[in-house]
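Suppose you are handed a protein chain with no further information: no name, no annotation, nothing but its sequence. What can you learn? This example shows the usual starting point.
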Amino acid sequence: MPADRFLIVNADDFGQSPGVNRGIIAAHSRGIVTSASLMVRWPAALQAADYARANTHLSVGLHVDLGEWALQGADWVPVYEVIPLENLSAVAAEANRQLEFFRQCVGRNPTHIDSHQHVHLREPARAVLTDIAGALGVPLRHCSTKVRYCGRFYGQDGDGLPVPGVLSVAGLTEILDALPPGLSELACHPGDPKGLQTMYREERKVEVEVLCDPRIRAALNILRIELRSFHGLEESSNQREAEEINS
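A reasonable first move is to predict its three-dimensional structure. Written in structure tokens, the prediction is:
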């Protein structure tokens, strides 16, 4: 029976640190990661872009970075804020600046758009990134009719507490088994936590182990889930722009 479920496994935070890069590259070369989202503001972004240029079968999108927040007690407090999130013109200028830098260092347009800590689900970032993704002809996470998003493979809940069993072969297999027909994106955050200052640290090395475990690829075969990437989802306008960038 042919597969009726197709899966993009997308690693977020590519370029955030050398350790994150190592984890994503391992999960791509030895595991099931087929795509990544690049954070262009960080020093390790150029290293990540080098890998993307040399491994064009890895689809690479733009992980728009407007800030990060961490839970302290009962409150989410900013770790850093790039621009005021309520300022439409500032959000638009920063998002377009990051897009242009992506083009410069990767040499092509992003295959998809998403954002750090899902800030694009709130306005005005949602409208800005909807416009950018529409102009590029690529999917915007949570807002695409082509790709259904799955964020269940994450080792913390909304309060930053551990979620037992999720980051395991059994946990990921259960997630895979529950995927609906059609094309889905499974987000992941593999990495080496060394030197990374974020509330999601130690879980990253566990993700690498699970994503690279041969039992997961075997489970995909048993469940008849076919791995895909964001390549091929772009509209013709995006392909023309990519040609212009490289000309």
